[in-house]
Amino acid sequence: MERQAPLMAAEQAVWFADRAVHRTVEIRENVRLARDTYRVRFDCPDIARRIVPGQFVMTRASGCNDPLLGRPLALYDTVLDAAGNPVGLDVVYLVIGKLTSRLAQSPPGTRLDVWGPLGNGFAPRPAQHLVMVAGGIGQTPFVALAREALGLRNYGDPARNAPAVDQVTLCYGTRSREYLAGVADFESLGVRVLTSTDDGTAGRHGLVTELLADVLSGSPPASRVVCCGPEPMMHAVAEMVCARGIPCEVSLESPMACGIGICFSCVARVRDDAGRWDYRRTCVEGPVFDAARIEF
Ligand SMILES: Cc1cc2nc3c(=O)[nH]c(=O)nc-3n(C[C@H](O)[C@H](O)[C@H](O)COP(=O)(O)OP(=O)(O)OC[C@H]3O[C@@H](n4cnc5c(N)ncnc54)[C@H](O)[C@@H]3O)c2cc1C
Ligand code: FES
Fold first, then answer.
1. Residues framing ligand 1 (Cβ under 6 A)
2. CA angle 119-211-230, nearest 5°?
3. Model-wide pTM > 0.70
4. Are strands 129-135 and 111-118 parallel, antiparallel or unpaired?
5. Domains contained in the chain, CATH given
6. For a substitution probing ligand 1, which of 38, 94, 122, 253 has the most ligand atoms within 8 Å of its CB?
7. What is the reported pLDDT for 15?
8. Taking all residues of the chain, what is their mean pLDDT, rounded to a whole number?
9. Cα distances (Å, whole numbers) of residue 208 to 44, 202, 219, 235
10. How do strand 192-197 and strand 167-174 relate by DSSP bridges?
């Protein structure tokens, strides 16, 4: 199949940290979704109004120096007030280290420092069948993206009008059933959810790429694929999808120190039009990149 034109080059991205604000917020809810996985909700109208799917906020515990640096967490979804205005954020996190362990112990009322919105996010693109591929905690950027793509909410300020898609499919793989988080959130939007687990306790016994292979050879054909998860999985997805000439974006989960483009701790190797690679900062030129341009 003929290759389609590449997606926008990372170096052409116009999103930088200029529009980010720093706020101290209070946790309103911190609820368990799955094993070691929680959804935290806080009010932050300044960020909620502007943030778009695929962007993230840097987060740290207020008044606490351990960890000193913030951690990036993707927008799970915005929270609306009774009048439909975005006033808060939900983020979903997997407990793996210092901040996320501390967050899991944080009751409502705990103060957090957050700054954002950060990163480029997913550009609105026309696509009849949007396929989202998530591994581990990589499903978090996709609830808002699916909601927007299905025409159920506008994001950003000014609110952007994303072209509506006909169908959204989520291929979602985890280690086992107990780590599947937020499946009902996707299903309530009308997303077709296909799951896989490494141990066979839910969905297909195997890798999420096996689910994707079925979707790519099925009907309706995939017209846009977005992917987030462990790097080997994103690499495999990129190869499968790009070989078919289908536009594919990956949202990288590079560890970050500043989140605003200063420290270069988050760089990824990204190719330009001539095929030469250079380092690009995941926090400002990403985290969403054209998969065909990533030097995995
Ligand atoms: C743009 C972006 C969005 C993200 N969104 C989410 C999200 O919505 N939910 C979520 O749970 N996580 C998300 N992450 C990953 C999250 O930032 C890390 O899991 C988090 O920094 C861990 O912080 P910690 O203090 O708990 O762990 P730490 O104490 O910093 O680290 C514990 C261990 O995990 C390793 N580690 C740290 N960061 C990563 C990483 N990114 N990938 C793999 N290993 C890592 C460290 O090397 C260390 O071994 C996102 C990352 C990026 C870049
Ligand atoms: S995290 Fe500092 S430049 Fe990206």
1. 56, 67, 71-74, 91-94, 96-100, 119, 137, 140, 253-256, 282, 287
2. 40
3. yes
4. unpaired
5. 17-118 (2.40.30.10), 122-293 (3.40.50.80)
6. 253
7. 57
8. 94
9. 34, 12, 18, 12
10. parallel
- pLDDT tens for 273-284 read 999 999 999 999
> How many helices, marked H, and strands, marked E, lie in the chain?
6, 16
The total number of residues shown for the chain amounts to 296
Q: What percent of the chain has pLDDT over 90?
A: 92
Query: Which regions in the chain score pLDDT beneath 50?
Result: 1-6, 8-14
Rounded to 10 degrees, what is the CA torsion of 131, 181, 47, 19?
Answer: -50
pLDDT at 18: 80
Name the residue of 73, 118, 140 to mutate for ligand 1: max ligand atoms within 8 A of Cβ. 73
Dmax (CA) for the chain in angstroms is 55
